[in-house]
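Tip: read the tokens left to right.
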């Protein structure tokens, strides 16, 4: 090789250091009509760029031209090197047989250092094809030669590949060691794309070891690095979708996978990546509860993998296809046999998901009454319960619980469910973000349902209560991890408020807002992303629920815990030292009735709807029948605490006849009520009154309340800005906020209260050292929540309860602004007399005029907690 040719060869490593510059230089070189050897290099560079980030058909055209030019230059080493690159492209195009033949010729045509590089590329192709033993053998042969040649870049690539193969077969420790060694080498190079790939790979390793926040952080960092290089990120999309699914964000994973498929199709990208993205989309659709979409995506993935001769991947796609068909209600002996066959293939290849296939086969067999077959498959799946990452152990304990259920052992079911949910608790508490904690509980929904069913069949009301509490509102069992003093996050929150305020002003003036809305969505993504990176700080799963302690603390209060088992409401009435069970109605019917009531409250918020009042009262009677059943006659004369399932969070409990004139409060769980009851007020009893902009009444109650309390802190006009409001709310004894509320069902933690400088969101409240002991929200929709996970609620009120707030009054529906003012004044009068929030709200309702608008306003407000 001449010095000039050596300079041309430097373009090859540049493809993964500065892809755009390498492409431009290669195209410029070809424009000068070079000799065959440098022309071969230029075509290879363009082929690599197109193969990985562009049109695969163009890639093949350039790589074949590079091969032919190398042969014309009579350079066997150059030809063999190009054949290695061409082999990868052919495999990615689904032409597996041709690709492997190209590798074979490349190995024959090369020696020493060049052969090691060809072997690395073939190892990569073996990994793409799912042939992990062959991949490890080729990389084993390549690494010593690359090291001997002091080829840092290719050695680091080979170590990264070997680590990735180790991860595919579940060898996390070996993968971690290789990733660490590769990263040390990458730090000595300028290979920016390879460095980004190393960060991405570390994210995958973090995920495989069970560290979801670290995985999300590393994958986001890798994405930023790729964005600076201007290269697509299809493998990153696949890996992030995996993490999102594990975090309970399957709908987001489905959207990301489908968007990536669209981009890939648009550039004529790799067929292999399309098949993998289709498989990812199928998994996401199944976990998002959309089996028909899952079937459609998985069926195409199976066909593509089969055509590409990728049997390992095809088997994984078959597993998802069978899962989706079962979820769609199909069950047959053929499906059991298919699931068993898939489980066998996955186990023989060392795939970590093999227990999931065995669990599926066992579950389908159980549904058909094939107990012997079910026991065989479930026993195989149950072996994973003792080791491996948390979600794999959870699969094992689910299988063990189903085995016990089939054997009629209620004790065995409960033991397996307890162990499985303990594993989930440990995993959940590694998550710092309240959203992730809530969504992660979905992974334990089956175990919790099995335990409730076993408790109902084999235990008394106390046991059913304990298991209902075991999985209810667990995200509130400990405060979320407070964000660190992250100046970037604070800057993003400030920018978000400014943009949101500008967008709202533009809408009010009739000006177009698309650009502002795009920027607002971008900032929301950034804020949410940074909060999801937080790791949990609380070890274990929080305090265990103690029925005896609950009964002791209740006194004359009755706690009504509504447990849902197989679609039926069971009322667990706690008080007088015992727990009694009553059977009520269908939860689906109750949920539908609650939605009708919400629509009625919206109409009654406006004058002229008085004729709806009898309809609402009749709906209240139906709700009582469905939700309380016979328990309504045994509530006694004291206060009542209602603990509803997440699906019924919008029930206006004061509308129910037996609760209408009672002291009633609501809590997400009995454990939450106990914590609120035990929360001491702050030593300094500060009152804070906040009045936001744009209220129809101007927050008319605030000046009168200021006179009542003497020297409260009053924040209004320009003084009601988010930083000042948060500073005053922190540690206050009582806070009253009169401001427009907005609930975001699509992103509950961006639900907000409008302040002078923009929205005060849930993420802001989570930065408080201690939220107000008592909080009154006199605006619409502040008691609305999103029901996520197993039985969790995300919203403003549930964000405050773990942060030190013992009691909240808020509305679950739109309310009449004018009617709110007398209700709030009467409520504060009761508080001033020493009443609790629930007592004061009961008396305030009674003090209102007896017309439809005022009565509906009173019903819309609920007291939460125990203060």
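Filled-in amino acids:
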């Amino acid at each position: 090789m001449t010095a000039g040719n050596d300079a041309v060869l430097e373009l090859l490593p540049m493809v993964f250091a500065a892809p755009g510059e390498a492409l431009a230089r290669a195209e410029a070189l070809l424009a000068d009509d070079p000799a065959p050897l440098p022309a071969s290099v230029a075509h290879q560079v363009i082929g690599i760029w197109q193969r990985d980030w562009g049109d695969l058909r163009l890639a093949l055209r350039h790589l074949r031209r590079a091969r032919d030019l190398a042969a014309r230059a009579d350079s066997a080493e150059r030809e063999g090197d190009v054949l290695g690159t061409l082999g990868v492209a052919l495999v990615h195009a689904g032409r597996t047989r041709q690709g492997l033949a190209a590798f074979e010729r490349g190995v024959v045509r090369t020696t020493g250092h060049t052969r090691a590089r060809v072997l690395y590329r073939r190892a990569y192709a073996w990994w793409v094809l799912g042939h992990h033993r062959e991949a490890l053998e080729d990389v084993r042969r390549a690494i010593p030669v690359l090291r001997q040649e002091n080829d840092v870049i290719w050695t680091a690539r080979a170590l990264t590949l070997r680590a990735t193969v180790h991860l595919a077969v579940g060898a996390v420790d070996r993968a971690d060691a290789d990733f660490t060694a590769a990263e040390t080498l990458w730090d000595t190079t300028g290979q920016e794309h390879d460095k980004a790939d190393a960060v991405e790979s570390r994210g995958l390793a973090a995920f495989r070891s069970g560290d979801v926040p670290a995985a999300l952080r590393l994958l986001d960092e890798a994405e930023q690095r790729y964005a600076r290089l201007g290269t697509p990120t299809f493998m990153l999309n696949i890996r992030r979708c995996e993490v999102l699914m594990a975090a309970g964000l399957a709908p987001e994973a489905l959207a990301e996978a489908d968007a990536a498929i669209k981009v890939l199709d648009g550039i004529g990208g790799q067929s292999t990546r399309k098949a993998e993205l289709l498989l990812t989309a199928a998994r996401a659709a199944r976990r998002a509860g959309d089996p028909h979409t899952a079937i459609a995506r998985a069926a195409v993935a199976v066909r593509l993998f089969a055509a590409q001769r990728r049997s390992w991947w095809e088997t994984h796609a078959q597993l998802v296809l069978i899962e989706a068909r079962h979820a769609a209600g199909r069950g047959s002996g053929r499906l059991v046999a298919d699931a068993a066959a898939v489980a066998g293939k996955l186990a023989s290849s060392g795939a970590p998901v093999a227990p999931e296939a065995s669990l599926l086969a066992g579950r389908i067999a159980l549904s058909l009454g094939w107990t012997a077959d079910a026991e065989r498959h479930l026993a195989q799946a149950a072996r994973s319960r003792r080791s491996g990452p948390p979600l794999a152990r959870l699969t094992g304990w689910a299988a063990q619980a189903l085995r016990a259920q089939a054997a009629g052992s209620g004790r065995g079911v409960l033991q397996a469910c307890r162990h499985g949910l303990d594993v989930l608790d440990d995993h959940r508490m590694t998550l710092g973000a309240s959203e992730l904690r809530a969504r992660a509980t979905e992974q334990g929904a089956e175990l919790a349902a099995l335990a409730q069913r076993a408790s109902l069949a084999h235990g008394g009301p106390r046991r059913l209560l304990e298991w209902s509490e075991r999985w209810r509102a667990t995200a509130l069992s400990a405060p979320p991890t407070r964000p660190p003093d992250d100046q970037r996050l604070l800057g993003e929150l400030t920018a978000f408020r400014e943009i949101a305020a500008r967008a709202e002003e533009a809408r009010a003036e009739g000006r177009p807002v698309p650009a502002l809305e795009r920027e607002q969505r971008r900032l929301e993504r950034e804020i949410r992303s940074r909060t999801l990176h937080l790791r949990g700080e609380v070890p274990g799963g929080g305090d265990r629920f103690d029925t005896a302690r609950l009964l002791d603390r209740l006194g004359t209060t009755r706690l009504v815990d509504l447990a849902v088992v197989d679609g039926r409401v069971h009322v667990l009435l706690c008080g007088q030292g015992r727990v009694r069970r009553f059977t009520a109605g269908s939860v689906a019917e109750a949920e539908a009735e609650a939605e009708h009531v919400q629509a009625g409250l919206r109409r009654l918020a406006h004058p002229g709807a008085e004729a709806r009042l009898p309809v609402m009262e009749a709906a209240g009677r139906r709700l009582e029948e469905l939700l309380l059943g016979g328990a309504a006659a045994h509530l006694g004369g004291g206060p009542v605490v209602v603990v509803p399932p997440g699906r019924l969070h919008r029930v206006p409990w004061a509308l129910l006849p037996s609760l209408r004139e009672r002291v009633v409060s609501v809590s997400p769980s009995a454990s939450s009520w106990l914590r609120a009851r035990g929360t001491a007020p702050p030593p300094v009893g500060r009152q804070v009154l906040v009045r936001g902009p744009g209220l129809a009444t101007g927050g008319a109650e605030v000046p009168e309340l200021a006179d009542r309390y003497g020297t409260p802190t009053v924040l209004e006009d320009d003084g009601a800005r988010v930083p000042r409001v948060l500073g005053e709310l922190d540690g206050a004894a009582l806070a009253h906020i009169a401001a427009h509320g907005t609930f975001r069902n699509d992103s509950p933690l961006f639900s907000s209260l409008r302040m002078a400088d923009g929205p005060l969101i849930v993420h802001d409240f989570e930065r408080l050292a201690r939220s107000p002991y008592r909080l009154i929200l006199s605006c619409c929709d502040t008691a609305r929540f999103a029901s996520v996970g197993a039985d969790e609620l995300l919203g403003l009120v549930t964000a405050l309860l773990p942060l030190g707030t013992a009691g909240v009054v808020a509305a679950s529906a739109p309310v009449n602004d004018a009617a709110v003012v007398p209700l709030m004044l009467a409520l504060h009068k009761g508080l001033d007399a020493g009443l609790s929030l629930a007592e004061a709200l009961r008396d305030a309702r009674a003090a209102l005029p007896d017309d439809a608008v005022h009565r509906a306003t009173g019903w819309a407000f609920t007291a939460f907690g125990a203060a």
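The mean pLDDT is 91. The radius of gyration is 31 Å.
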